[in-house]
């Protein structure tokens, strides 16, 4: 292909991918399956890697994040990103209406108030050029790279506009927040307080790849500045934003009767728990822009709008006791146990208190009447102590580990108090669970209950002991029969053949997830080579910062971990990272998979195509070499037949993989 043909295909791929992004992330109505979408992205990445001069900043491939930044540049807002006056009662809303009607006869737009953080998005000639935080309303920070990772933000507008600046609210959906909390708990890291704080922290990550992993979203709710078009009302502007392809604030409604507007505010409040995102209020605004000009501003806020803030659902209960749990990293985490209360539709009786400082700041004592709520309607938290009972007892944080009795120490870099004993049974339980988990060594049948049995019976004191287990050991345990014992031992034995990156992830090094483990193995080639590397060598790996490199360097020089790796190697656990060998059996061929295959999943078929030098594509075109058609093949098969493209069965495909091209 010549450069013009490549550019034409890239432009076509970008347009198709952005259409699917809009359908999925804005309309919540996917029009293509994940595999087909992945194939489109793969083709685009390939072309951009071969022709880097054609890879633009607003390509969909940039949504995964790019180079890490050291600082965020300052941005001056041409139009102030102001705030609204908060009101907390219906009577205050009625007072607002009374003031407005002294000057005009209004129509109001009522919309939910998303609990996130405000950002500005700027577009020139329809292209996204800059995004920034609100800051103090006058000066914010340039977070363009991080905003590009939010898939509901259009990188190119559906209609060309000379210039437009819009304001939106970035938020973390409740489902993404729950995933983040689960991941942080699993890694023994500090938990985010609520979705808003989590979103704010995610948007200000210096590594945009981390931002991309957090699955943020946005609702756009205002036009700050626009050239080339005249708009006369707020509702008209929201409709226009929707036409441009923005994900607009949901379910905005217009009223000319304040009583109906108030009724709508109450309806939003009553249904707030059903939303997949956090809201902390409802906004009521005068719709007509000329009327807004007439009403004007105070020194701080506009006179034409107010934000009604819903009170958080809080309940009082009695704090019965505080337990201290020991996590996988050794952190001693206090947990409040209180009389059960119903919050956000579920009964709760426990809440993490994070650390000793958290307890001291709130002066929490056993027997206190406390206030509890759910952060983001998900995570229970203790807000404060209302009053101390006469016989309330101050909580004394243990000076030693409640599980093994080792003297606890305070982490200099964190607020956490930790058990330094690497052989502590509590840490051992969680370390083994992590080691055996699906994304680590994938030892089937080794769930928490079995792990606890093995540890309590002194059969396993480190993960290396798993490889010493005999059938007779397991048969002595409850609920173990011959078959289950053999199955578990087989699964343990099979885990020795895992790729080395799984082992690196299974070792539980702070901050090293699956992707980082694979990058380490790809760079160094073996676990031993990683152990012998110095910090500067680790820092040469893309996206490895000083903290992550220090974590790896330090962890792999700890005596207990060196002994563990020695034992694992002696048991025959694979330490070498083998790059997958490729063949040229499909070299130069573009293959499309359609329909249901009998022996392969689509992912497996795609992997075989790429392993054998071919390109897996999600769409049929004149450039398609082969179409692998299974049962119930649809429009792709029809199109391939019309274009005269060779169609093969799964049996023929596997024959090619085995014997090569005809």
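^ Assign residues to that structure.
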């Amino acid at each position: 292909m010549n450069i013009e043909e490549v550019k034409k295909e890239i432009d076509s791929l970008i347009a198709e991918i952005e259409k699917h992004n809009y359908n999925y992330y804005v309309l919540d109505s996917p029009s293509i399956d994940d595999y087909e979408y992945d194939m489109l992205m793969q083709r685009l990445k390939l072309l951009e890697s071969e022709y880097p001069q054609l890879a633009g900043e607003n390509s969909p491939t940039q949504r995964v994040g790019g180079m890490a930044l050291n600082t965020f540049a300052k941005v001056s807002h041409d139009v102030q990103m102001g705030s609204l006056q908060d009101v907390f009662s219906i009577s205050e809303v009625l007072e607002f209406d009374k003031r407005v009607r002294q000057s005009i006869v209004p129509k109001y737009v009522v919309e939910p108030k998303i609990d996130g953080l405000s950002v500005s998005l700027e577009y020139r000639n329809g292209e996204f050029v800059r995004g920034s935080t609100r800051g103090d309303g006058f000066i914010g920070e340039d977070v363009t790279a991080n905003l590009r990772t939010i898939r509901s933000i259009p990188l190119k507008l559906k209609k060309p506009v000379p210039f437009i600046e819009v304001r939106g609210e970035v938020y973390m959906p409740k489902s993404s927040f729950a995933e983040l909390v689960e991941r942080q708990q699993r890694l023994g890291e500090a938990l985010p307080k609520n979705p808003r704080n989590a979103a704010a922290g995610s948007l200000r990550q210096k590594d945009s790849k981390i931002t991309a992993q957090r699955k943020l979203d946005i609702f756009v709710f205002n036009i700050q500045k626009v050239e080339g078009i005249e708009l006369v009302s707020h509702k008209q502007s929201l409709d226009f934003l929707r036409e441009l392809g923005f994900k607009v604030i949901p379910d905005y409604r217009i009223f000319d009767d304040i009583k109906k507007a108030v009724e709508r505010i109450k309806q939003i409040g009553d249904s707030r728990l059903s939303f997949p995102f956090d809201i902390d209020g409802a906004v009521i605004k005068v719709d007509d822009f000329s009327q807004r000009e007439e009403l004007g501003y105070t020194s701080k806020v506009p006179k034409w709008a107010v934000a009604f803030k819903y009170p958080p659902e809080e309940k009082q209960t009695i704090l019965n006791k505080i337990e201290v749990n020991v996590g996988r990293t050794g952190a001693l985490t206090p947990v409040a146990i209180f009389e059960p209360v119903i919050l956000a539709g579920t009964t709760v009786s426990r809440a993490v208190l994070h650390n000793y400082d958290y307890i001291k700041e709130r002066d929490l004592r056993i027997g206190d009447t406390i206030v509890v709520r759910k952060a983001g309607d998900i995570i229970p938290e203790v807000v404060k102590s209302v009053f101390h009972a006469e016989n309330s007892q101050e909580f004394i944080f243990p000076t030693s580990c409640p599980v093994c009795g080792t003297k606890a120490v305070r982490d200099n870099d964190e607020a956490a108090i930790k058990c330094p004993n690497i052989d502590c049974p509590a840490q051992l339980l969680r370390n083994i669970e992590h080691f055996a988990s699906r994304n680590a060594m994938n030892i089937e049948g080794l769930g928490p209950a079995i792990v606890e049995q093995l540890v309590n019976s002194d059969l396993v004191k480190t993960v290396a002991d798993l490889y010493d287990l005999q059938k007779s050991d397991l048969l002595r345990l409850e609920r173990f029969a011959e078959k289950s014992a053999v199955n578990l031992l087989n699964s343990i034995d099979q885990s020795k053949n895992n790729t080395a990156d799984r082992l690196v992830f299974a070792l539980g090094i702070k901050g090293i997830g699956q992707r980082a483990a694979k990058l380490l193995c790809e760079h160094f080639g073996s676990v031993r080579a990683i152990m012998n590397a110095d910090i500067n060598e680790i820092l040469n790996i893309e996206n490895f910062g000083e903290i992550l490199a220090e974590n790896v360097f330090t962890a792999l020089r700890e005596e207990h971990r060196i002994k563990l790796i020695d034992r694992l190697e002696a048991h025959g656990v694979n330490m070498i990272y083998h790059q997958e060998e490729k063949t040229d059996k499909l070299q130069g061929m573009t293959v499309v998979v359609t329909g249901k295959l009998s022996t392969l999943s689509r992912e497996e078929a795609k992997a075989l195509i790429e392993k054998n030098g071919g390109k897996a594509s999600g769409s049929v075109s004149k450039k398609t070499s082969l179409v692998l058609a299974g049962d119930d093949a649809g429009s792709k098969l029809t199109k391939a037949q019309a274009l005269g493209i060779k169609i093969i069965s799964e049996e023929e495909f596997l024959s090619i993989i085995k014997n090569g091209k005809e």
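The chain is about 35% helix and 20% strand.
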